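Entry 14. Ran structure prediction on the chain below.
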Amino acid sequence: QVQLAESGGGSVQPGGSLRLSCGASGLPYRDYCMAWFRQAPGKKREGVATICGDELHTVYSAAVKGRFTISRDNTDIRIYLQMNSLQPEDTAMYFCSAKPNKWFGDIWAGYNDWGQGTQVTVSS
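Output, structure tokens:
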């Protein structure tokens, strides 16, 4: 059974930084992608960043490109999201997920397992 656990959220002022962490266990596939998603109140969950395969191929949403960096530690299947220059519109619950490294029709499709999420709040 896939288990995911996020941590590292908090409250920061605009322009601040946070680093999120997500540990995974029970992945039934060796070649995988992991991703960060977020969901703001009243909005749909949206993909933020993904990292795939041994080559660590990364993709970012337009909203965060250049400000956020996704990375992966293969020793214990853990990903991170370094978030810089945070803005109020980044306020959301952030979730991580994992899937097999194959095409599901959309870069953000195929993710079906979720952690509990970690809250990020950006306000002055």
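Residues 50 and 59 are 5 Å apart (CA to CA). Will compare against last week's run tomorrow.
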